[in-house]
Predict the structure.
Amino acid sequence: MKTIYLDNNATTAVAPEVRDAMLPYLTDLYGNPSSMHTFGGQVADAVEAARENLANLLSASPDEILFTSCGSESDNAAIWTAIQTQPEKRHLITTRVEHPAVLNVIQHWERHGYRVTYLAVDSKGRLDMDEYAQALTDDTALASIMFANNEVGNIYPIQRMSEMAHEKGILFHTDAVQAVGKTPIDLNHLPADMLSLSGHKLHAPKGIGALYIRKGVRFRPFLQGGHQERGRRAGTENVPYVVGMGVAAQLALDHMQEERVQTAMLRDKLETGILERITDSMVNGDIENRLPNTSNISFKNVEGEAILLMLDRLGICASSGSACTSGSLEPSHVLRAMGVPFNYAHGSIRLSLSRYTTEEEVDFVVEQFPQVIETLRAISPFKD
Ligand code: PLP
């Protein structure tokens, strides 16, 4: 059975170009980039070339890019440095719809005495700019707002929000893990101080990420030890993965425009195909302003996990908007924050496409979906 992979917000396939570029660094070119000899030096050159590629993708400067092990580490490092460099400030701002990589870290600091504003969202997952404006105070150490939401795909007004933070002299971080490679980001014009990204969301392998730190922003390392990354992150660089992420960034830069159009076209075909064929279904999120590859659909009176299992039997990989906690299926914190009605939130499915998604795959999924939902509704304990 062929696998139809529509879970690209969870992780992506490693691009063949990325894999090929990595291989020499897993075989012959195994030197340590910090070594003084030529053998290590050529590896150091490859690391710097990757840094430059990543900087180009973001319109940043290479010395503003710090390699990390993943998006979660980048988020942790950003929040850590904001707190360590401004111990006198005791307030943090974030949203109710962040990824746990930010939310759980902020909650940790809340338990340690920080005051936190969790910005609410409306039924489409949009933020209230007045609430944000009021939250920015002299005591605020950091505003950390995601660039794009992993579950519903909403893109947040990061340009305006970073400007507003700066007007009050407040540091601004954005978790752009779901945005980098899918939507243009120009840090020449976007005044964010820090930005997190992760390789495995843009066709590089898992276990590599980066944090952009604007020139002039004070930084305290999250990971201490050796002097790698100009003293900002200890640990011998993960060279093959750094090289891979550099190639992934180059591919994203070269093909972003056409990929955005193609992916959005297929996503819309998939979404409308499903909505037209299935009654009592609706799209979650802000359809005017979201990632081109993401669709989050709720089906009334069905369980998301059951949909996933049936799709899985057909070789279709998706993800649900609920999580099994202590035996009961809880709708995700994002859908709860949006106030999606209970009997819809339970039956939510996220379909996320990539450059490798084909029209035939979309047609197959559209064809199969009605039968899946019909079967599950017939046996569903939830009824009106
Ligand atoms: N932030 C967002 C928005 C994400 O979607 C993810 C991963 O799903 C992360 C952070 C964490 O990234 P990583 O898996 O590289 O730690």
User: Anything to note?
Assistant: The chain is about 40% helix and 15% strand. The chain has a mean pLDDT of 96.
